[in-house]
Request: fold
Amino acid sequence: MSDLAGLIPLLLIVVVFWLFIVRPARKKQQQYSSLQDELQPGLEVMTTSGIFAEIVSLEDAEARLRIADGVEIRVHRQAIGQIVRPEPAAEPETLEGD
Reply:
């Protein structure tokens, strides 16, 4: 009985480790993988360093990004941090009683 009681703290540590380390890391990896699958020329993206650009071309390990007219940079594909999605246009507010 005391041997089993000694294993409970160890099992608790394993469960906590899985909940706070393994599960979030796995979720982040899945999000990154789906981001890489969505990349295609023409999309506006933001690099991990905060540069906004449009994808010109993609290869296995690198991407060409247009940051201004006539200015293209070559970056590692993993440097693309997120796809910039246009925000929906806000509807104009109307005053009540008009």
Q: What stands out?
A: The chain has one helix and five strands.
